[in-house]
Design goal:
Blueprint (H helix, E strand, L loop, with lengths): L12 H10 L5 H11 L3 H12 L4 H5 L1 E4 L2 E4 L12 H13 L4 E6 L5 H12 L4 E7 L2 H11 L4 E5 L16 E4 L14 H4 L15 H13 L6 E2 L1
Parallel strand pairs: 3-4, 3-6, 4-5, 6-7
Antiparallel strand pairs: 1-2
C-alpha cells in the first residue's frame, strides 16, 4: 500500500493512479502500489512512473515479474513470462513427479528461466529432487535465467535448442518443456506495443507460420527423451 509519510513531496496516491490509468494501465491501483514500493525517494518514483506511462512494460520497470508465486528477474528485452504458461509448469511438475527420482527436466527456449525455476520450486515443495537444464539463444535471457535458477538448482546454457545441451542427456530427458516463439513473422506488427516494441524479436518470431521452432523441436525430441518422457509445448 502507499505510505503517506514517505515524503511531503511524494506523488499523491490518487494523482499517481490517475496518471497510470490515463496511460492505459488497467490495474492502475495495483501498479501504483508496486511502483511506490520499488522507489526509495520521490525522484526515483517519478522516474519509474515516467518509464511506465511511456509504455515500457511494468515488469521491466520493476525488474521482476510474478510467475507461479515467484518473483522472477527480468531484464529489458527478455521475454516476460505469461500467466498462461503456468499450465505448462503444472503439467511438467506432474510428469516429473511420475518419473524416477531425480527427474531430468529440460526447459528449451527458457527465456528468463521462469518455467524451470517454477518447476524446481514446486518439486522442492513436494520433497523431490530433479536435474534441471535450461537453454536459450539470447545471451541476455540466459543471464536472467542464471539468476532465477541458480547453480544449486540447475544449469543454464546459451545456444540453439538441443545444440546447447550436454550430449550425455540424449535418451535421458524425463520431461521436455518448450515455450518457443510462435508468432508468425507477419503478425508481429499486430502485437500489443509492450511486446513488439520492447521484447527481443528472437523471443517472438516463429517464422512464416509461427511453427518453425516447433517443427525443429518435435523432429529432434525422440532422440533426447527417455522412454515415456513427454514433450510439453
Amino acid at each position: 500500500m502507499l505510505s503517506s509519510d514517505r515524503s511531503s513531496d511524494a506523488v499523491p496516491h490518487a494523482r499517481l493512479v490517475d496518471e497510470l490509468r490515463a496511460a492505459g494501465c488497467v490495474f492502475a491501483e495495483d501498479e501504483a502500489a508496486l511502483l511506490v514500493g520499488a522507489a526509495t525517494i520521490p525522484a526515483e518514483l517519478a522516474a519509474l512512473v515516467t518509464r511506465r506511462v511511456s509504455g515500457e512494460p511494468l515488469e521491466y520497470v520493476l525488474g521482476w515479474a510474478e510467475f507461479c508465486g515467484l518473483q522472477v528477474r527480468v531484464r529489458g528485452g527478455v521475454f516476460v513470462p505469461r500467466r498462461r504458461s503456468e499450465l505448462l509448469v503444472s503439467e511438467a511438475v506432474e510428469a516429473a513427479w511420475r518419473a524416477p527420482e531425480p527427474a531430468t527436466v529440460v526447459d528449451l527456449c527458457c527465456g528468463s528461466g521462469a518455467l524451470g525455476a517454477a518447476v524446481a520450486a514446486a518439486m522442492a515443495r513436494r520433497g523431490r529432487a530433479l536435474r534441471l537444464y535450461a537453454v536459450d539463444i539470447d545471451p541476455e535471457a540466459v543471464r536472467c535465467a542464471l539468476e532465477n535458477i541458480g547453480a544449486d538448482v540447475g544449469q543454464v546454457f546459451v545456444g540453439d535448442l538441443y545444440d546447447a545441451l550436454p550430449a550425455g542427456l540424449r535418451g535421458r530427458v524425463d520431461v521436455l518443456m518448450v515455450n518457443a516463439p510462435y508468432v508468425p513473422t507477419g503478425a508481429i506488427a499486430l502485437m500489443p506495443p509492450e511486446a513488439r516494441l520492447y521484447e527481443h524479436r528472437v523471443a517472438l518470431d516463429g517464422g512464416a507460420d509461427g511453427l518453425d521452432l516447433q517443427r525443429r523441436v518435435i523432429a529432434a525430441a525422440p532422440s533426447w527423451l527417455a522412454a515415456d518422457g513427454p514433450l510439453l509445448i
